[in-house]
Amino acid sequence: MPELGYWAIRGLAEPIRLLLVHTGTPFTDKRYELQGGPPERWSAAEWTSVKETMGMEFPNLPYFIDGDVKISQSNAILRYIATKHDLVGKTPVEMANCYQMQDVAMDLRNAMIKVFYAPQDAYEAMKESFLSTQLPAMLSRLETCTEKHGWFCGASLTFVDFALFELFDQLIRFSPKTMHKFPAILKFHAKFPHVSPQVEQYIASPKHTALAINNKMANFL
């Protein structure tokens, strides 16, 4: 059975979990925990003690093991699963659009992470700047895209929609006031859970709802 390994949070792995659930792929959901914490340093020993024993060229979290295939990096894992299940576009142009949109999604996530894990003394100022300027600019283009296409890479569902759903879900929890200015994104967010019965069930289950979004040292969990 394939194994997905990641921290016991949503983070980078939740779009992968959603994609595996949607495609009906049984998998072991290996979740690693940070230990310790303030006033001591957080310890990643549960992961670092085994990472070099797993036979991966570039061991990292998340990782995905599927028989002889052992890969890390969330984008590579999403593409691998999507390619197996025809969720990556049907032509070279469609595939290129998917890869472009995946990088756009990662740009958005990286901007979010800078705020979520900001130093505590800088958090409020960074949050205000992000919500007032950077985030609206990024969401405006995504709003136009989903208004035009329905899904983010055209008329059909692709793996990119799984990544963007998770980011939008986090942002709705982080700043609902900001997100309510983007009705097309909210419409996408509302329809996505219904892409399959298994995704709808997973999103409503404790496997999803009980997980923190970020790790224990973050400002926004």
Structural write-up:
Helix content is 53%, strand content 10%. A hairpin with a 2-residue loop joins strand 5 and strand 6. It has two domains: 3-86 and 199-210, Glutaredoxin, CATH 3.40.30; 92-195, Up-down Bundle (Glutathione S-transferase Yfyf (Class Pi), Chain A, domain 2). A four-stranded mixed β-sheet has the order 2-1-5-6, with helices on one face. It contains ten helices and six strands, in the order βαβββαββαααααααα. It has 221 residues and is an alpha+beta fold.
Quick structural summary:
By secondary structure, the chain is an alpha+beta fold. The chain has helices at 14-22, 45-48, 74-84, 92-116, 123-149, 159-174, 176-179, 183-191, 197-204, 206-209; strands spanning 3-7, 28-32, 35-36, 42-43, 63-66, 69-72. The protein is built from ten helices and six strands.
